[in-house]
Amino acid sequence: MIVRAYGAHAADKQVEPMDIFRRDPRTHDVQIDIAYCGVCHSDLHTVRSEWAGTLFPCVPGHEIVGRVTALGPGVTKFRVGDTVGVGCLVGSCQHCGSCDEGLEQYCEKGFVGTYNFPTEDAPGHTLGGYSGQIVVNEDFVLRIKHPPQQLAAVAPLLCAGITTYSPLRHWKAGPGKKVGIVGIGGLGHMGIKLADALGAHVVAFTTSEGKREDAKALGADEVVVSRNDNEMQQHAGSFDLILNTVAASHDLDPFVGLLKRDGTMCLVGVPEHAHPSPNVGQLIFGRRSIAGSLIGGIAETQEMLDFCAERGIVADIELIPIQQIEQAYDRMQRGDVKYRFVIDNATLDGRPRG
């Protein structure tokens, strides 16, 4: 079928309307009318070829919320009318060690991303959620339990939510644990909310004094301005886990020094240029670790969505029509958003929702 979408034909071209092909549902496929799609920094990096390997035409978007409109004959997990989500993954080998453990994001043969990954469908690579519909195998579709009025703000949970939830769960953030969140942006604001909901003592790190009250409103118990050496030293050697959401290259050593013995700093942002090499002595003499984490598997993403639905947790968003996507990209680069843009996909045909 032919579907209206927005994408770019080249790195130096703006995102614009286009028609794309979606396959008819196969045996285990779910067809979804997309209501909302979050705007991730990955979208911007990919569509402008700031990361190598962009395939054009490029239709970004991997924070998708919508409604099931058709099913393949073998689908057992969903019904027409269900509210569902699609995140960063739409496929994996499903039989390697990682997939067998529900860790499809680490598929040893390579997962299939929601956009810009090879596929049999035209045009030969996956096309994302800046579109009216998507067709996905049921094993990569997620159930959304939030109420209708929260659905737009649920969309970023499919990337920003699981990217922060997965390491928090892996390193057992919870009561009795002191957790730091570095950066208060699209990822960081979700990290603060989730670490707080898990019961940890949460300390937010920011370079801006002006974000102190914002961080507390999100659920931080304390806020540290990382440029203030005195504030930093007050927390030396005290953190069980620091979740570093900053994607820009920066000195990791000041944060490593805040970890307890056996503490971990987990990186979830990929910088354009490598971080300066850390002081190995701080790692050796404190048995400290610097680690990384990539989104989450399907089961864990569903766990995160259910956890958030039970507690009323959503992202803080600004809802935009698709026609404002280039302005949104420019604002993202300036850090001018609290904290995530979400596209109202009803505007794909130029009309407002309602």
Key terms:
single chain, 354 residues, alpha/beta, Quinone Oxidoreductase, Chain A, domain 1, Rossmann fold, 2 domains, six-stranded parallel beta sheet, 26% strand
CA gyration radius, whole angstroms: 20 Å
Alpha-carbon distance between the termini?
25 Å
Coarse morphology: globular
Specify the CATH class of the largest domain: Alpha Beta
Describe this structure in words.
The protein is of the alpha/beta class and 354 residues long. It folds into two domains: 2-159 and 314-349, Medium-chain alcohol dehydrogenases, catalytic domain (Quinone Oxidoreductase, Chain A, domain 1, Alpha-Beta Complex); 161-292, NAD(P)-binding Rossmann-like Domain (Rossmann fold), CATH 3.40.50.720. 23% of the residues lie in helices and 26% in strands. It has helices at residues 41-47, 97-100, 151-154, 160-170, 186-197, 212-218, 229-233, 253-256, 280-284, 298-311, 325-334, and strands at residues 2-7, 16-21, 29-39, 64-71, 83-86, 89-91, 112-113, 133-137, 142-143, 178-182, 201-206, 222-225, 239-244, 259-267, 289-292, 317-321, 340-344. The strands form four sheets. Strands 3, 4, 5, 8, 9, 16 and 17 form a seven-stranded mixed beta sheet that branches. A six-stranded parallel beta sheet has the order 12-11-10-13-14-15, with helices on one face. Helix 4 packs across helix 5 (186-197) and helix 4 packs across helix 10 (298-311). The model has no long low-confidence stretch (mean pLDDT 96).
